[in-house]
Design a protein that fits this description.
The protein is of the alpha/beta class. 33% of the residues lie in helices and 25% in strands. The chain has helices at 20-29, 93-104, 124-141, 155-166, 186-189, 209-217, 232-247, and strands at residues 4-6, 15-19, 37-42, 47-56, 61-69, 81-87, 108-112, 148-149, 171-176, 196-201, 221-223. 32% of the residues are buried. Mean pLDDT is 88; it is low at 70-74.
């Protein structure tokens, strides 16, 4: 079920007033009407049911009134927490990978400035834009997972940030590879039911030998899917779905 994520805090009567982009989205895109019920998530937290209390077309604002919080059963995040380390891919394909993996429930995305990446550097505006993509994807999919996106960085810096982010969780680290000589099966790698899974997915040119060695030294196991050659953005959602299917 779709949800609408709001950052405004309800007042003492449970009223949330929205304007600007939120107003335009609800009125022009969702085409909501007064009296209609809406699933909302305040700051991306526990979803609540709200009634469209008032739509003011002159002053261009909308008021929602919270009615009830959805049951905890519907808001439990899937296990394990999946962290995607995605080597930067060019154009809208990076956006596609982030959007699809957010809809699937990935917990965090760490873009990697890899040795073979066409994109050599990024600014903070890209991260802010991707946060909007994640918000839209969560609204569309109704995902209860508060997916986070981090600033693109070189592999060594990003991996240190990933370990800090996971804070000691029992973690399985997987490096997805196109080389079919690898004998590690996904089922075998996940047999110990980890609390978190890190997926390292390369870019168009793959992951360099130096980067591969670095990941292996840090406990990553190479896994090859016995399927067709996949684009980077396809490999990301494919691997995410495979992990969830095995562990959930």
């Amino acid at each position: 079920m779709k949800q609408f994520i709001v950052s405004e805090i309800p007042d003492s009567e449970g009223i949330i007033k929205l304007s600007g982009k939120d107003y335009r989205y609800l009125v022009a895109v969702r085409r909501i009407k007064e009296g209609q019920d809406l699933k909302v998530s305040v700051n991306g937290n526990t979803p609540s049911e709200a009634e469209v209390f008032n739509i003011n077309t002159e002053k261009r604002y909308i008021k929602l009134k919270l009615k009830k919080i959805h049951s905890a059963v519907k808001t439990v995040e899937p296990r394990p927490a999946i962290v995607l380390m995605q080597w930067l891919i060019k154009g809208q394909r990076m956006d596609t990978a982030i959007r699809q993996c957010t809809e699937a429930g990935v917990k965090a995305v760490f873009p990697i400035l890899g040795e073979f990446s066409v994109i050599r550097e990024e600014n903070k505006n890209q991260t802010e834009r991707r946060k909007r993509i994640i918000r839209e994807a969560r609204q569309q999919s109704g995902s209860p997972v508060e997916t986070e996106i981090f600033q693109a960085a070189p592999l060594n810096k990003s991996l240190a940030s990933v370990f800090e982010y996971l804070n000691g969780k029992k973690t399985t680290k997987l490096l997805m590879t196109e080389k079919d000589e690898e004998e590690n099966s996904l089922q075998t790698c996940l047999k110990e039911s980890p609390e978190a899974v890190i997926l390292a997915i390369g870019c168009e040119g793959g992951i360099s030998p130096k980067e591969t060695e670095f990941l292996i030294q840090n406990g990553f196991k190479q896994v090859h899917f016995k399927t067709n050659v996949l684009r980077a953005e396809t490999a990301a959602i494919y691997a995410t779905a495979a992990v969830q299917t095995i562990l959930n």
